[in-house]
Amino acid sequence: DAFRVIVGTFSSLDEINSPSFGRMIAILETLAKYRSCVVMLDLECNDLVNEMFSTFLSIA
């Protein structure tokens, strides 16, 4: 599942010195731009949405 891979990348967002940090930010911006959370909810990926926001809150 593509969304599972994308959400998995967010666990590394706190590693700002990582060479792939820029890519992770670009993925996050793309998800926001196209409102992918809404698509994920429409596809009933509730667990993934929950995991994504839990990851965001743990990093913040």
Automatic annotation (TrEMBL):
Pfam families according to UniProt: PDS5
InterPro entries: Pds5
Main location: nucleus
Keyword terms of this UniProt record: DNA damage, DNA repair, Nucleus
GO cellular component: chromatin; nucleus
UniProt-annotated location(s): Nucleus
The organism's place on the tree of life at top rank: Eukaryota
Residue spans crossing the bilayer: none
Annotated GO biological process: DNA repair; mitotic sister chromatid cohesion
The keyword DNA repair is assigned to this record: yes
Official protein name in the record: Uncharacterized protein
